[in-house]
Structure prediction request, 246 residues.
Amino acid sequence: MTHKPVLVVVAHGSRDPRHAATVHALVARVRSLRPDLRVVTGFLDFVVPSVSGVLASLAAEGVREVVAQPLLLTRAFHAKADIPAVLREAPRGMRIRQAEVLGPSPLLVSALERRLYEAGLSPADKSSTGVVLASAGSSDAEAVAVIAGIAREWSHTGWRAVRPAFASALPPRTEDVVRELRAEGCGRVAVAPYVLAPGFLPDRIARGAADADVLAAVLGPAPEVARVLLDRYAEALRTRPVAAGA
Prediction:
């Protein structure tokens, strides 16, 4: 019998308990979509089980192949440095594929729209609504360019305007873009957090949205996010695994 590689979802972790609860809800949705696939979760910091602990436990069970899926929306420091470093310390002989980060993806844009509609907007509101695409922020130029590209492409789908904002690392902040869109004559201003789970930076985004008309929820366990995660898993299976500890 052929065993599918175990999917190890690698989350950043947070002291905020809402973060882990949201991660577990997303993983539960993934399991519901693929009951044939073993899916486990490990955290880089603050929360147990740790990624290294999960990998050691799997190795002790005899698992030899895993796909490590970064629960990240952009390729910034964690995807490029932290996660590869942890995976290199996996038990010797375990074959690991690191999947690509979740974004960008049209499915994630669909999830953003889902959250805006759940917050009270409708497709009929698009032409009069300016949207703030509010991300956590990064000092990584590649990650920043990706956010700007998503905002640019999303603005061509009927919204009056879509502008990026960042909760850390660099301007503009959410509140600044809310004011800009209001000054430009947008009938409504909505804030769409491009983040996966609640925590310190999403709370900062929410505070910056105080003068907006609509604040959407974080992406969380949206079905589109689960589908992207499984797509990345399938893509990773087409790559060559790397033997840990080699």
Remarks:
- The chain has eight helices and nine strands.
- The chain has a mean pLDDT of 95.
